[in-house]
């Protein structure tokens, strides 16, 4: 059996508008469209400005993903000014939480000296934290809507009239790094794993970055993507309970652009297991370091297969050499220009 691994270059070669530049143009063209979130209003233009305030992505898709690490870092290390003081957006460093509640109490006392803040301590604490969380939400409301805008944008990519240009064997298996259904709708492939989700399953779309540094800085973030964690969260929600010190908006959006690598590796293993794969053909990949972890898992699961690494540019060839040498892949492999996989014209 042949296994095809397709990256964004595969879609680009079909003249599909899937580059970051197109996403940016989408936000620009719809910059006046607004989202209303309770009392907050944010436009697509606001989203783009905020994103590019922290990031300078270029046309390469992998670079866009790498830039999202800055979003994770910004939220995790973010500061906010309240009561003329600077606070961590997490509000959980040492006694900072208690200090903020004390500031809130003093403000109430200043407005009404007769009010007994000790008697109503619990109510004041809950209100103070709600006030703080709302301020954080106002500051970072653009983050979830960048993700939502991305979901909307991938739905605008039209496959109609797209023609197959590659020789793809029938009854093959496919691991796609793309959100489009090009392999299913254009090449009629049935056995396809969308590693990062697809346009047909928007809630499963994975967009973002992963690094050991992030895991060290934010322990527990990786496990927050497991089914067990989500089931526990659902049970707590049904019971109407939530930790008083939890900032729901912060908790949800710190992981909005985090890539749960361990779970994605597991999905590769499950997909490849029990398949008699004799050839792996990689099309449309830049072989950027951000994706090396998946290739390592693939080689681990199918070590006896022959690997055909396609390249488009000299940079691709250099990246192929790097991925093989630096990961010490002991595999039968070959580098082939991508045009050799295209349908031969008469």
Structure, explained:
The chain is of the alpha/beta class. Among the domains are: 2-13 and 162-204 and 261-341, Rossmann fold; 79-138, no CATH class. Helix content is 45%, strand content 13%. It has helices at residues 8-12, 20-29, 44-54, 61-77, 96-111, 121-140, 142-154, 182-185, 212-217, 227-238, 248-254, 261-272, 292-301, 314-326; strands at 2-6, 34-37, 40-43, 79-82, 85-88, 173-176, 191-194, 279-283, 306-311, 332-337. Strand 2 (34-37) and strand 3 form a beta hairpin. Helix 3 crosses helix 7 (142-154) and helix 5 crosses helix 6 (121-140). 29% of the residues are buried. The model is unreliable at 241-246 (pLDDT under 50).
Brief summary:
InterPro entries: AbiH (IPR025935). The protein is an alpha/beta fold.
Write the layout of secondary structure elements.
Layout: E1 2-6, H1 8-12, H2 20-29, E2 34-37, E3 40-43, H3 44-54, H4 61-77, E4 79-82, E5 85-88, H5 96-111, H6 121-140, H7 142-154, E6 173-176, H8 182-185, E7 191-194, H9 212-217, H10 227-238, H11 248-254, H12 261-272, E8 279-283, H13 292-301, E9 306-311, H14 314-326, E10 332-337
Parallel strand pairs: 1-6, 1-8, 6-7, 8-9, 9-10
Antiparallel strand pairs: 2-3, 4-5
InterPro entries: AbiH (IPR025935)
């Amino acid at each position: 059996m042949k296994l095809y691994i397709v990256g964004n270059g595969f879609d680009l070669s079909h003249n599909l508008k899937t580059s970051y530049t197109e996403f940016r143009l989408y936000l620009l063209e719809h910059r006046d469209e607004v989202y209303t979130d309770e009392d907050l209003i944010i436009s697509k233009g606001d989203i783009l400005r905020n994103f590019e305030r922290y990031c300078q992505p270029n046309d390469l898709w992998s670079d866009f993903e790498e830039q999202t690490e800055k979003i994770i870092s910004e939220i995790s290390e973010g500061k906010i000014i309240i009561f003329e003081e600077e606070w961590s957006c997490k509000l959980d460093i040492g006694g900072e939480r208690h200090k903020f509640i004390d500031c809130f109490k003093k403000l109430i006392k200043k407005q009404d000296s007769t009010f007994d803040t000790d008697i109503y301590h619990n109510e004041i604490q809950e209100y103070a934290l709600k006030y703080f969380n709302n301020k954080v939400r106002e500051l970072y409301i653009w983050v979830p809507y960048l993700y939502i805008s991305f979901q909307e944008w991938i739905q605008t990519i039209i496959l109609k009239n797209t023609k197959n240009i590659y020789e793809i064997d029938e009854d093959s298996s496919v691991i796609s790094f793309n959100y489009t259904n090009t392999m299913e709708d254009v090449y009629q492939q049935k056995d396809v794993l969308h590693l990062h989700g697809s346009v047909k399953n928007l809630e499963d779309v994975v967009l973002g970055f992963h690094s050991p540094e992030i895991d060290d800085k934010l322990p527990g973030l990786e496990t927050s993507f497991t089914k067990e964690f989500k089931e526990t969260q659902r049970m707590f929600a049904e019971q109407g309970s939530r930790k008083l010190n939890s900032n729901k908006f912060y908790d949800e959006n710190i992981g909005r652009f985090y890539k749960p690598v361990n779970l994605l590796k597991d999905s590769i293993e499950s997909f490849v297991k029990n398949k008699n794969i004799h050839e792996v053909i990689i099309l449309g990949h830049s072989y950027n370091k951000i994706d090396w972890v998946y290739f390592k898992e693939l080689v681990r699961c199918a070590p006896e297969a022959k690997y055909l690494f396609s390249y488009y540019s000299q940079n691709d060839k250099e990246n192929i050499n790097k991925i093989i040498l630096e990961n010490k892949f002991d595999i039968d492999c070959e580098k082939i220009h991508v045009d050799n996989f295209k349908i031969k014209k008469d």
